[in-house]
Amino acid sequence: MNPTHLSGSTEPQGSKSSSSQTTEPSKHGKIDANSMASTTADLLFQGSQQNNSNNGGGADSASQKACRACTDFRSWMKAHNKADPTITKVVPAKRPQCPLARDELGRSTWSFLHTMAAYYPNEPNTQQQREMKTFINLFSKFYPCDDCAEHLREDLKTNQPDTTSRHNLSQWMCRAHNRVNIMLGKSEFDCSKVDERWRDGWKDGSCD
């Protein structure tokens, strides 16, 4: 179908091309609306044809994308950019209520564990100490990231949680997190600031 049909133009064949008329003013000094619409349709049609030829009709574009659920978000984006060169550095806003990728799950989990330790009793009774230790050991068996859970179980073989007080548990959790940070090549957190970070807020008042 001739793309000018999409614009509603009734210009007879043999007249000047629509692209040349877009810059030619009418008797009243205004650009003809039909010519402008015809040119826009031409450009859209040509752009569509070019994209289809470049993408092979789009049949394989979906199969070239990386599996997001199988890796962390940063690696997924790198692989996705390689598969689709049309993607720019601008990442669209993430839709809410989507399954967590590995790095998102890790951040959320550490936030929960540190906050739980920060609100643990200052002087827990024997039952509370036992239950917290049991919880952390059971947690290492059911954490959704298999290799992360395995690493935690290995760490617990020689570093059982200190549940004798809120301070001791918070410090144990911070050291456990730092061991993971070292393994991942990340900087260590200053464990003297766990209460500021996870319970009281920073002393400069930025959290107030």
Task: Please tell me about this protein's structure.
With 208 residues, the protein is an all-alpha fold. The chain folds into three domains: 1-57, no CATH class; 60-94, no CATH class; 102-200, Four Helix Bundle (Hemerythrin (Met), subunit A) (Up-down Bundle). The chain has helices spanning 18-21, 33-54, 73-83, 102-118, 126-142, 146-158, 166-183, 194-200.
User: C-alpha Rg, in Å?
Assistant: 30 Å
**Class of the largest domain, according to the CATH hierarchy?**
Mainly Alpha
Largest sheet: none
CATH-level-4 superfamily name of the largest domain: ERV/ALR sulfhydryl oxidase domain
Kindly report the CATH topology of the largest domain.
Four Helix Bundle (Hemerythrin (Met), subunit A)
Q: Supply the helix-strand structural class.
A: mainly alpha
Q: What does the secondary structure layout of this molecule look like, with pairings?
A:
Layout (H helix, E strand, L loop, with lengths): L17 H4 L11 H22 L18 H11 L18 H17 L7 H17 L3 H13 L7 H18 L10 H7 L8
Helix pairs in contact: 4-7, 4-8, 5-6
Brief summary of the model shown:
With 208 residues, this protein is mostly helical. It has helices at 18-21, 33-54, 73-83, 102-118, 126-142, 146-158, 166-183, 194-200. Residues 1-31, 33-41 and 43-70 have low confidence and may be disordered.
